[in-house]
From TrEMBL:
It comes from Duganella aceris. Keywords: Cell inner membrane, Cell membrane, Membrane, Transmembrane, Transmembrane helix, Transport. InterPro entries: DUF6691, MFS_trans_sf, Sulf_transp_TsuA/YedE. It comes from the Bacteria. It is a multi-pass membrane protein. Belongs to the TsuA/YedE (TC 9.B.102) family. The keyword rRNA-binding does not apply. The chain crosses the membrane at residues 20-44, 56-76, 82-101, 121-138, 158-178. This is YeeE/YedE family protein. It is found in: Cell inner membrane. Pfam families: DUF6691. Its main location: membrane.
């Protein structure tokens, strides 16, 4: 295996990982919540009092990130070769799957691996394998180069996840220290 340095994009991958990791770290340190998009979105379906604002702000932040990105860079061309019915069925299946798995890749992948949860590590491996097999991602060439372990491997996608996990690991480490100090005061 050789690394495909021609297509490897370390700085955008690093920036993406930092932003994902910081979002997870800020949410756990400030709000005591795990970043799990399915849980955040699902919590809006049966909201608790005082629990709506931060969820809406988080979802709005995800949407605004794409809008801001599109102001500086061209969004990748996408073509969906499925009907609205198929898309709705697929969305429902993903929702059911995240309920059975007790979370999605953001919750298990970034926060669970950062907490060194064996269940989250196994779940993330299954999610990622199924995702690579079933779906095309934003840039199919990136995915193909990422999966080309025998040829010119592009580690950009792994880099995004690794950076986010490292920042999450630091946040959970800090959370343990804060909890220990709070317990010591009482």
């Amino acid at each position: 295996m050789t690394i495909d340095f021609l297509h490897f994009t370390p700085w955008p991958a690093f920036a993406g990982g930092v932003l994902i990791g910081l979002a997870a770290a800020i949410l756990i340190l400030v709000n005591g919540r795990i970043v799990g998009i399915s849980g955040i979105l699902g919590g809006l379906l049966r909201p608790n009092k005082g629990d709506i604002t931060w969820r809406l702000a988080f979802i709005a932040g995800i949407i605004m990130a794409a809008v801001i990105y599109s102001m500086f860079y061209a969004l990748p061309e996408t073509q969906v070769d499925a009907s609205w019915v198929m898309l709705i069925v697929a969305g429902l299946l993903v929702g059911i799957g995240t309920r059975y798995a007790s979370g999605c890749t953001s919750g298990h992948g970034v926060c669970g691996i950062s907490r060194r949860s064996p269940r989250s590590i196994a779940t993330t491996m299954i999610f990622m394998a199924a995702g690579f097999i079933i779906s095309g991602m934003a840039n199919p060439a990136k995915v193909l180069n990422f999966l080309d372990l025998a040829g010119n491997w592009d580690p950009s996608l792994a880099f995004v996840m690794a950076v986010a996990i490292l920042i999450g690991f630091f946040a959970f480490f800090m959370l343990r220290i804060v909890k220990l100090r709070c317990l010591a005061r009482n």
